[in-house]
Design a protein that fits this description.
The chain has about 120 residues and is mainly α. Helix content is about 90%, strand content about 0%. Helix 1 (about 1-25) crosses helix 5 (about 90-119) and helix 4 packs antiparallel against helix 5 (about 90-119). It is globular, with a radius of gyration of 14 Å. It is found in: Membrane. This is DoxX-like family protein.
Length: about 120
């Protein structure tokens, strides 16, 4: 349970601030342009990252179904991000964080699922 708590905290903080950056950071504006994605796609990505971060926290403390759904959603989002990185031919160092977070969120989703079936 402590591992899940640490991971949820780490992932939630990471996605919350990265998601906010999608709305306010000039660096993120440039990155999404480099990705070949629109302003609307940048904002939708930021929205889902902030929503996912909040869902993980809410799920950990109040409702594991929400946590499970948020972790799965963030895993899907990061898998799509990894696909974009591959499409634009980013190198391993540039692509790895999205792949890592996709797997990490999948692991967290599994942990939430285990909580749900044991209840």
């Amino acid at each position: 349970m402590i591992v899940l708590h640490i991971l949820v905290l780490f992932i939630s903080v990471s996605f919350f601030f990265y998601g906010l950056g999608c709305f306010y950071s000039p660096t993120m504006y440039k990155e999404f342009k480099r990705f070949g994605l629109s302003k609307g796609q940048r904002k939708i990505t930021g929205f889902f990252q902030v929503l996912g971060a909040c869902g993980l926290s809410y799920g950990f403390y109040l409702n594991p179904i929400i946590g499970f759904s948020a972790a799965l959603g963030l895993s899907l989002l990061m898998s799509l991000g990894f696909g974009v990185r591959l499409k634009i031919k980013d190198n391993f160092v540039q692509s790895f964080p999205s792949f890592f977070f996709a797997l990490l969120n999948l692991f967290v989703a599994y942990q939430f699922y285990a909580l749900l079936i044991s209840a």
